[in-house]
Amino acid sequence: MSEELLKGYDEHARRGQRLRQAGVLALAAFVTIMLGIYFGGVFFGARSLEVMLALQGKKEQLKSDIEQLKQENAALQKKYFELKMLFEAAK
């Protein structure tokens, strides 16, 4: 009788252990899937690393364009004031 009882208890303990292992496995799979979704969004989503790097490149290009336009503006202002002085001297 005690042998049957121990056998039943052992069987019950094994089932409990299998259920815990299945639970841990399910939790690990869930966490893995959620992390995959999160990192997929980080690397390929609207706020992704790729978008950030592209925007940084565009920012540098715009800074370069601003400097070029400032130089062109300075040259045009110089020309404007020279012409203005010639016009006033001709009066």
Give a quick precis of the structure.
93% of the residues lie in helices and 0% in strands. It has helices spanning 2-44, 49-90.
Tell me what you see in this structure.
The protein is an all-alpha fold and about 90 residues long. It folds into two domains: about 1-45; about 50-90. The protein is built from two helices and no strands. The protein has helices spanning about 1-45, 50-90. The longest helix has about 45 residues, at about 1-45. The radius of gyration is 37 Å and the shape is rod-shaped. The protein starts with a helix and ends with a helix. The mean pLDDT is about 90.
Helix proportion range: over 70%
The overall pLDDT, averaged over residues, is 88
The H-and-E topology, N to C, reads as: HH
Q: Quick one: biggest sheet?
A: none
What general outline do the C-alpha atoms trace?
rod-shaped
Can you tell me the number of structural domains?
2
Computed Rg: 37 Å
Counted beta strands:
0
**Multimerization state:** single chain
Which class best fits the helix and strand makeup? mainly alpha
Q: Strand portion, in percent?
A: under 5%
Enumerate the spans where pLDDT stays under 50 for 5 or more consecutive residues: none
How far is the first residue's CA from the last residue's CA?
Answer: 128 Å
Q: What is the count of helical runs?
A: 2
